[in-house]
Specification:
- The chain is α+β, with helices and mostly antiparallel strands.
- 34% of the residues lie in helices and 35% in strands.
- The chain has helices at 11-29, 35-38, 41-50, 91-102, 118-126; strands at 2-5, 52-58, 61-71, 74-82, 108-114, 130-138, 141-148.
- Helix 1 crosses helix 3.
- The longest helix is centred in the N-terminal third of the chain and has 19 residues, at 11-29.
- The chain starts with a strand and ends in a 9-residue tail after the last strand.
């Protein structure tokens, strides 16, 4: 597996992986109109142009992606996705770790996920993310906001 910066030419493949990855979330929450499923190709292209977007490749195929948008000293993490046939192999961990390294100026990384998304919460907590707040969106969804502050005081290997 190779992780590298995405280009606008990758937008279609990233959107395909994103939609495949978020189907289970839509089913979990009973909502087929969640933002990752209705985002357009043009919107993905614009994000790639204006943010740090990393892709994971396996034999030339995009199998995962993650976005990071720097806002002040914080990196807002979004759309961590892994193709369903590659989930559970450490790709999400590798993508998040690579994002942390790609944005060394960030003093914190913020993200959110739904309250029923146990696998996501387990991954984020394992990587040092801690809950900062909960936001009730409606009867079937509460967003859990998490933050990770990297320890940059130690020398990097």
């Amino acid at each position: 597996m190779l992780i590298e910066r995405a280009t606008t030419a990758d937008a279609g493949e990233i959107l395909t992986v994103q939609r495949a990855a978020y189907v289970s979330e839509a089913q979990l929450y009973g909502d087929p109109y969640i933002p990752p499923l209705i985002e357009s190709l043009e919107q993905v292209r614009k994000v790639i142009e204006g943010a740090v977007v990393l892709k994971a490749l396996d034999a030339g195929r995009v199998i995962g992606a993650v976005r990071g948008q720097v806002s002040g000293t914080t990196c807002l993490v979004g759309r961590l996705v892994v193709a369903p046939d590659h989930q559970g192999r450490g790709i999400g961990t590798a993508l998040l770790t690579a994002l942390h390294e790609a944005v060394p100026e960030a003093e914190a990384f913020d993200l959110f996920t739904g309250h029923l998304s146990e696998a996501n919460l387990k991954l984020y907590r394992r990587l040092g993310y801690r809950e900062t707040s909960r936001e009730r969106m409606d009867d079937h969804l509460t967003l859990i906001h998490l933050r990770m502050r990297p320890d940059r005081s130690l020398p990097q290997p």
